[in-house]
Design goal:
By secondary structure, this protein is of the alpha/beta class. Helices cover 36% and strands 31% of the residues. The strands form four sheets. The chain has a five-stranded parallel beta sheet. A five-stranded antiparallel beta sheet has the order 10-9-8-12-11. The longest helix is centred in the first third of the chain and has 18 residues. It is globular, with a radius of gyration of 19 Å.
């Protein structure tokens, strides 16, 4: 699970990372941790992350403003804000903050939030055997789209990593029914949250890939996509 920590104060950045590593060791749970003092660098790599611990007071904008930009790219990213000022907490939850921490950070409170992250991740994880019968575990929310080739389906993730498994499209539709996945073609199932643009017969995804949109599925797919955008407002 990929976790970003962004704080322009290096001491705070290192302290938060130290606490997360302590939690990981205590609970035998691996966090793939990346740290940023430069929020612009974080913005360039944002699509790869599941969670962010984000300082509210950055160099020339607030974490609240940055969160709005982040959620334009990926609504599934959960943000834990932290600040010396609790007064920003209301604004933070207006941009769907996952949680809010007041500095100096209370270790027990942070650990409670990390417990919630583990719980959320467990609920959206699935285990499958790939076509070579090797077990693979991944997060449903990281899937951009799935396409079929005969009896094999290839899962395309947001970081362009792929896994090929033996699973029918019918099975995928049943499994992902509650996760905003819809067909663009009889053999292509797309996560609406990673759609960047729809152009006639092509759907362009936020990871740079594009997939075919057939006439049969176009109207329903466009309606589902617009409905999802409306729900985000």
């Amino acid at each position: 699970m990929k976790l970003a920590i962004c704080d322009n104060e290096n001491a705070d950045l290192l302290h938060i990372k130290k606490l997360v590593l302590e939690y990981s060791k205590k609970n035998n749970y691996f966090f793939d941790i990346y740290t940023y003092q430069d929020y612009n660098k974080l913005s360039e790599e944002i699509i790869d992350f599941n969670y962010i611990i984000l300082d509210v007071l950055l160099e020339d904008l607030t974490g609240i403003q940055l969160a709005k930009q982040i959620h334009d790219i990926n609504k599934d990213i959960k943000i834990i804000f932290c600040s010396i000022n609790p007064e920003y907490s209301i604004e933070a939850f207006e941009v769907n903050a996952f949680r809010y921490l007041v500095k100096p950070i209370d270790k027990q409170k942070l650990f409670e939030y990390l417990d919630e992250i583990r719980k959320n991740e467990k609920e959206s994880q699935i285990d499958l055997l790939d076509y070579q019968r090797k077990k693979c575990t991944f997060n449903i929310l990281d899937i951009c789209y799935i396409d079929m080739n005969g009896r094999l389906s290839t899962i395309h993730f947001k970081n362009k990593f792929t896994i090929t498994v033996r699973k029918t499209m019918k099975d995928w539709i049943l499994l992902l029914n509650n996760y905003n996945f819809h067909l663009t073609h009889k053999g292509i199932l797309v996560n609406l949250k990673y759609v960047s643009l729809i152009e006639k017969e092509i759907v362009i995804l936020k990871n740079g890939d594009s997939v075919y949109l057939s006439r049969k599925y176009r109207k329903e797919f466009e309606e589902k996509f617009m409905n999802m955008l409306g729900d985000m407002l």
